[in-house]
Design a protein that fits this description.
Radius of gyration: 21 Å
Number of domains: 1
Distance between the termini: 55 Å
Helix content: 40-55%
Shape: elongated
Strand content: 25-35%
Length: about 140
C-alpha cells in the first residue's frame, strides 16, 4: 500500500513538472538561437542582411537583385519572420563552386531574417526560424 502511494505521488510530481521542463527547454532554445544569430550580425533590414550574406558568400559580385523580401506568411502571421530571395551574378561562390547552372548564369539564394529589439538577424533554416518566431511570440520577445 505504501509503495502504491509513493508511485502515485511520484507519477503526479513528474506529470506536474513536464510543462515546466518543456517551457524551460523552449526558453533556452529561443534565447540561445537568438544569441547565436546576433553574434553573426545585426542588420538594419532583412535586405541589408541578405546583401551582407551575399558579400560573404560570393567572390567577384557583379549584380545583386533583391527579388522578394517580406513576411514569411502573407496572412500576417509572424510579422517578425521574413524571407528574402535574391538573384546574384558573381564570378564564383566563396567555397569555390560555380555560380548558376546549365540554364542560368546566376544564383537564387533565399534566407530567413527575424526582427529582434536590436535589428534583424539571419537565421539558417536548420535553426527552424518559423518555430523560433512562434516561440518568440509565446515568450513575448519579438522585436
Amino acid at each position: 500500500m505504501k509503495k502504491k502511494i509513493l508511485f502515485v505521488a511520484f507519477t503526479v510530481l513528474v506529470l506536474l513538472l513536464i510543462p515546466f521542463v518543456c517551457a524551460g527547454s523552449a526558453w533556452m532554445y529561443t534565447t540561445s538561437q537568438l544569441a547565436i544569430a546576433k553574434s553573426r550580425g545585426i542588420y538594419e533590414s532583412p535586405e541589408a542582411g541578405m546583401q551582407a550574406r551575399i558579400e560573404e558568400g560570393y567572390v567577384g559580385v557583379q549584380k545583386v537583385y533583391i527579388m522578394s523580401a517580406g513576411p514569411n506568411f502573407p496572412n500576417g502571421e509572424l510579422p517578425h519572420v521574413w524571407f528574402v530571395v535574391a538573384r546574384v551574378y558573381a564570378d564564383k561562390r566563396a567555397d569555390g563552386k560555380a555560380v548558376g547552372n546549365e540554364r542560368n548564369d546566376f544564383d537564387f539564394p533565399g534566407s530567413f531574417y527575424i526582427k529582434t529589439g536590436n535589428g534583424w538577424v539571419w537565421v539558417p533554416e536548420g535553426a527552424f526560424p518559423v518555430l523560433l518566431g512562434k516561440l518568440m511570440e509565446y515568450f513575448q520577445i519579438t522585436g
